[in-house]
């Protein structure tokens, strides 16, 4: 009897311990699931998906009753709505891929909390399910379309980006024209101002450089003029004729 009592105490302790651990684990999982559900979603509401489901799940009885007013949704409209849904999925998947590395680095450094990382993981998981759903829906319409629907959606996105850039460039054309006209008017005004200042300033004649020929050529003998009517000529007599000089006076 004593042996059973001595064994019952450890078993009771183990039972209480296991029960408390199970209760704690259950409460922890419920709290974690509630916290994850209460976290703010990473992306806003998926409007394209909501539109597609609204078109897909219209009440057939209401369509039959109001057939004249609201005809049934054609398949082409549903395909277009599904394609729009795929384009939004591509944008979100690309955003997650570009943000994952930076967010992981910030989480390792402790710059962000675990709640943000949980939101990101939940968004990533939701997008995986969303892509699978879109592929299945596309294959329901046309077999094999699920393999090419995202390629078509990517081409649509590139076309939208190209159109947006073209619109931005067209908006800048008017601004550039206005800037160029102002620049042209300013340049013309400055040019005319320089011309007017150049015409108003006196023209300076260049300094005359000395004539090198006049410097090197010996000057001719000058004629001594006493007056307009007389000129004195001095002639030397030949040797042997005496040292007498003859002066002559003549009229000019």
Model description:
It is a single chain. The protein has 252 residues and is mostly helical. It has a domain at 36-150. It is built from seven helices and two strands. The protein has helices spanning 2-38, 47-56, 60-65, 75-109, 114-141, 149-200, 212-216; strands at residues 230-233, 248-251. It has a two-stranded antiparallel ribbon with strand order 1-2. Helix 2 packs antiparallel against helix 4 and helix 4 (75-109) packs across helix 6. The longest helix has 52 residues, at 149-200. The radius of gyration is 55 Å and the shape is elongated.
Radius of gyration: 55 Å
Task: Sketch the major β-sheet.
Answer: 2 strands, antiparallel
Structural class assignment: mainly alpha
Share of β-strand residues:
under 5%
The number of distinct β-strands equals 2
H and E string: HHHHHHHEE
| Principal-axis shape | elongated
Helix content: 55-70%
N→C terminal distance: 183 Å
Q: In which order are the strands of the major sheet placed? A: 1-2
Number of helices, counting only DSSP H or I runs of 4 residues or more: 7
Mean pLDDT: 75
Return residue spans where pLDDT drops below 50 for at least 5 consecutive residues.
62-69, 205-210, 212-252
């Amino acid at each position: 009897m004593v042996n059973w009592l001595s064994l019952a105490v450890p078993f009771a302790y183990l039972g209480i311990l296991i029960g408390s651990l199970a209760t704690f684990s259950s409460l922890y999982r419920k709290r974690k699931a509630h916290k994850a559900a209460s976290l703010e979603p990473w992306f806003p509401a998926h409007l394209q998906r909501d539109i597609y489901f609204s078109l897909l799940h219209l009440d057939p009885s209401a369509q039959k009753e109001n057939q004249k007013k609201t005809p049934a949704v054609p398949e082409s409209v549903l395909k277009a709505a599904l394609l729009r849904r795929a384009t939004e999925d591509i944008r979100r998947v690309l955003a997650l891929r570009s943000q994952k590395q930076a967010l992981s680095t910030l989480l390792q450094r402790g710059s962000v909390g675990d709640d943000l990382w949980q939101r990101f993981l939940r968004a990533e998981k939701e997008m995986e399910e969303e892509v699978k759903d879109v592929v299945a829906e596309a294959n329901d319409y046309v077999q094999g379309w699920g393999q090419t629907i995202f390629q078509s959606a990517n081409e649509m996105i590139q076309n939208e980006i190209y159109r947006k850039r073209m619109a931005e460039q067209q908006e800048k054309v008017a601004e550039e024209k206005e800037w160029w006209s102002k620049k042209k008017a300013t340049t013309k005004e400055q040019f005319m101002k320089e011309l007017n200042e150049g015409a108003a300033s006196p023209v300076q004649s260049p300094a005359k450089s000395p004539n090198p020929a006049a410097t090197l050529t010996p000057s001719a003998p000058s004629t001594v003029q006493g007056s307009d009517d007389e000129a004195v000529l001095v002639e030397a007599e030949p040797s042997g004729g005496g040292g007498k000089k003859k002066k002559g006076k003549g009229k000019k």
